[in-house]
Each structure stands twice: as C-alpha cells, then as structure tokens.
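Reopening this ticket.

The earlier resolution said the output was attached, but the attachment link was broken on my side. Pasting everything inline this time so it's all in one place.
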Amino acid sequence: MSYLLDGERAARLIEYKARDSRQPGFMAVVDKLLEKTWKAPLPEGYKGELQTMVNNEVMRYLLQLAASTNTSKIVRGQALLKLEELKSFINAQLPTAEPNLKANMLFALVQMDAFKADPSKFQAPASIAIPPGAPIGMPNMDFLNDEIVH
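Inline output:
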C-alpha cells in the first residue's frame, strides 16, 4: 500500500495525466482502489476480517497522504477529495450495513473526524535511515570471495 499511495508516485500520476489524458491519474487509481476495498462486498468469516484490515490500511494511507507536509498540495487536495467521497459513501451505507461492517465504518468516520481536528496526528512515521558501511561482522565486501579488493 505504501508504494501505491506514495506522495511522489501520486504527484507523477497527476503529472502524467496532465501531459496525456489517456493516463489514469491519481484520482482514477484511488477510485479503483476504493472500488476494490471499501466499496466491495465484505466477505464472511476470516476473509471478511482480512478485508476490514485492508480497508483500514487504505484509509490510513490516504489520511497520511493528505496530512503529509512533504507531499504536494495538489496531491493532498486530491487525497482529501477522495476521503470526503469515501465519507459520503460510508454515511450512505451505514444505516443498512451489517454489524461488523457498521463497526468498521464507524471507526473510519471517527478517524476522519480526528483527522479534521488535528491532521498532524496522521503524519507518516519517519523512515529509518540505514547506517553506512557493511553489516556488523562483515568486513566490507569480502564475503563475495572473488579475490577482488572492493
């Protein structure tokens, strides 16, 4: 999910759509993602619980994308639009939803309200930088045993 809803990738999708209208663009990609997750029927049993988890991850990544100060304002705006559309969809489906789905929908609405109150709480955690050099216990590239000094 992190690759699909990445800020830089989303910006490229928007740019490509601007250059060539035949390209899907970021909003079309998110529409397809929501169609296959939140808007798809929830299976019963274990598969349904997995789908609920995936739905929550999709929403979490959209919230992080909309909150990210490192992402372009265009991407953030489009992510916000898709979140508002998802909120409208959830509100329309809520009265007739089954209890498990209704619980997940209520959780999503609470998360969206929390986002509106304080978007900074939804910033993605900073990536951990890999330290330079060879892994501990491995002297440089000698593990290749190719008799070439690296």
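Reporter confirms the inline version is readable. Helices lie at 7-19, 25-36, 45-67, 73-93, 99-117. The mean pLDDT is 88.
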